[in-house]
Write the structure tokens for this entry.
Amino acid sequence: MSPDQNPSCVFCRIIGGDEMVSVLYESDEVIAFLDVQPLHRGHVLVVPKRHYKNLFYVPEALAARTFAVARRILPGLRRATGSRAINLFSPNGAHGGQDVFHFHLHLIPVPEGAPFPLQLPDPSASVPSRSELDVMAARINQCIHQERDLEILEEVARGR
Ligand SMILES: [Zn+2]
């Protein structure tokens, strides 16, 4: 197991070859394999090989490469499963249902007529007003800029 990996993490053990999975794709940075508890047949996990707890911690370039692998797999996965719909899902935090704390992306084929637990829009959801949406968008934008400023300050502090 490389120093980038965590021995208590099941995905790191898979990446290190200590647990068996059915691998679809592997590069130096990203691996894709079948989920051993598929929601539907052909359920794939795409995982960067370095251990990052979740998407909050994954460097942007590696996140982009992980999504690119997902994009590459999609057409063949659709052909192999016959599912015209394939949903992407990534839990990022325990409250959101993350169970393995190593960033991963689920590719879930959804057969026609089969249930998918997350249906959007939720018919029971309340519909906010335009001004409420604008206030929320402004708040998120302000926080995105603050986060960027903090990242720049941290990089400066590290001497980059
Ligand atoms: Zn890990």
The first strand starts at residue 23 and ends at 26. Residues 121 and 127 are 10 Å apart (CA to CA). The chain has three helices and five strands. The chain has two domains: 10-123, 126-160.
